[in-house]
User: Fold Proteasome assembly chaperone family protein from Nitrososphaera gargensis.
Amino acid sequence: MNPRPNRKNSNNLPVVSDGYTKVLPVTNQKIVLERPVLIAGFPDSGMIGSVTINHIIEQLKMHQIGYIESQHVMPAAIFIGKRFRHAFRIYANDSGTVCALICEVPVTARGTYSIINTIVDWCMNAKVSEIVVLGGILPANFSPPYLLERKAMLLRNELAEKPSAQSPNPADSLGMAVPDDAIIVGLSGSLLSVCAARGLGCTALMIPTMVESPDPEGAAIVLEALPKILPGLKVDTSSLRQKVEMIKKHLEEFLKMHRQQLQDYERSASREAERIYK
Assistant:
């Protein structure tokens, strides 16, 4: 079933659904989107995606404008700011020029195609101009390794164009590393892949992570590099750097819970499938 837009709502954004996944609006928000950039992050290596997007939402005082419902997302509610929120959310700033996408619960691997294609359909309807994915990447997933020099890595299709004297390599001028090759897995990789296939501008800003433990310092490095590719967007990272140890301890507890939830959810889904097909 092809994803399709349905009814309009109070903030002029359609409901988009493929029958398995829906992107639904928060109808009490009146923010009008102005060809926004969508910045996305997911639970990943070092929890970079989750930390950076939560920090951007807080710093830019963004408002939730939508959420994703899917049979492939573990049912859960997140209690943030003294209120319950959906676990898979879309935010926007007041001017409608920047959106943020965050997922804070496990997603089944078999549901990735449905979820990502429906999100990209929503982006097309919302006239999103570009998607920027923030995240961490393990050393085994790129070459050559840059771990000795911790700097943000820029991955973008335009980097394949041969630089000239008049137009030098943009990564060099921005002071970022560019891997010779890399593989980005999970929701982040799927989102970049679908965007590239469907002609939607996409960029990844990644940081090498040594292990899968939380890395708030790496998140700060990514956020400090973000204005280099999105001029005018500045995010204060002083609170991240001042509270590295406290944030790391909190995220380690969250990551442990996240992994247990994913294992429990996968076991439950497997038992249900066995029951259906017996």
Q: What stands out?
A: The helical segments are 48-59, 112-125, 170-174, 186-198, 216-229, 238-242, 244-277. Confidence is low (pLDDT under 50) at residues 4-10, 162-169.
